[in-house]
Design brief:
With about 350 residues, this protein is of the alpha/beta class. It has 14 helices and 11 strands. A hairpin with a 3-residue loop joins strand 3 and strand 4.
Length: about 350
């Protein structure tokens, strides 16, 4: 019998049980469960799936859920693929130096021919190891600023749920924790074929995230405590985002010349001033579209856009969806969360 493709799940105490065990359940079922459900007779498992950690010892992951790894990373040969599960860190806490053994191992097995993939914050390990340098990559949208500040050689793709830009170099990154759905379908198709991937998706009702991350992304707005004029501008625009000529007014209030203001604002926030205003307005519009019943044009006017076309253009650029499509999607979620 031919050797099964081996996929290793790299985990740590900072890993979500939903990601680790969700991946494990789906990958272990490939080839077996679909036939069992359709004809009442299980097929052969097509993948060799193992959970690995730095030391191979039992531990508890997020939520105090017990995990018993199959092996330590030093005890396994180069696999066909590794999935770096999410390893949670706050948006302020770059995990430099936290996973040296794991990163060294990832670099070694990648050099040996393994495909590396990551879910959510798992891409931070690939980033720290330099494996994503000069590539486009993704993680959860909340880590955008962290990547831009600490890993400038990486082009962070906020909108992507599954980023295949570095696929040719055997690296694939996935966005938020539920993006493992998209990643697992990709890996099954790659190692077992398209039809098996479709069958597995049918078993688990995995539909993917065709619209990307952008509709879910929320603007992160950390206040820059070391630059008083910029912090003051952030505080002011948070209450006056609908005002006319907002950037001009922020510059006037700051006492800085426009060029200096723009440079310091970008350094502090990661946004150009007008981008910041637009992102803030879109966030306010999203909240209104999610819950309110006023017209789309009235939403645009309420946040500072008298021209409906301008509102639709800015909103779609920020979310990947028109205001009408966004309203339909998230009010449907609201009805599920708050049934009549």
């Amino acid at each position: 019998m031919a050797k099964k493709p081996q996929i290793l799940l790299l985990a740590a105490p900072e890993t979500s049980a939903s990601v680790l065990y969700g991946l494990y359940d789906v990958l272990m079922s490939v080839g077996a469960v679909y036939l069992d459900m359709v004809i009442g007779k299980p097929g052969d498992e097509l993948l060799d799936v193992k959970i690995v950690t730095a030391n191979g010892k039992p531990f508890r992951c997020i939520g105090n859920i017990p995990v018993e790894p199959h092996a330590a990373i030093g005890d396994v040969e180069t696999p066909d693929a590794v999935i770096v599960c999410d390893m949670y860190t706050t948006i302020y806490d770059v995990p430099h130096g936290r996973y040296p053994r794991e990163i060294a191992w990832l670099k070694a097995i990648h050099a040996g021919g393994a495909l590396l993939s990551s879910v959510c914050s798992g891409s931070l390990l690939l980033a720290e190891g330099g494996l994503l340098d000069d590539h486009r990559a993704t993680a959860h949208w909340a880590y955008r600023d962290m990547f831009q500040r600490h890993f400038p050689k990486i082009s962070f793709q906020t909108e992507s749920v599954l980023c295949l830009a570095a696929e040719g170099d055997r690296i694939v990154t996935a966005g938020g924790v539920s993006a493992w759905h998209d990643l697992v379908v990709y890996l099954i198709a790659r190692f077992c074929g398209y039809q098996v991937a479709i069958e597995t998706a049918k078993v688990f009702l995995i539909g993917g995230h065709a619209e990307g991350q952008s509709p879910y992304a929320v603007m992160t707005r950390p206040m820059e405590s070391n630059d008083g004029p910029i912090t003051g501008s952030q505080e002011w625009i948070a209450e006056h985002y609908a005002t006319a000529n907002p950037v001009e007014k922020m510059v006037e209030r700051s006492g800085l010349n426009p060029r200096t203001f723009s440079r310091r604002f970008r350094t502090a926030t990661g946004f150009a001033p007008i981008e910041y205003v637009q992102a803030l307005r879109v966030e306010e519009a999203k909240q209104m579209l999610e819950m309110d019943q006023i017209s789309n044009d009235d939403v645009g006017a309420a946040i500072g856009y008298d021209d409906p076309a301008s509102f639709r253009r800015v909103f779609k650029r920020g979310t990947g969806m028109t205001p009408a499509a966004y309203r339909k999607k998230f009010q449907r979620i609201a009805r599920i969360a708050q049934p009549a």
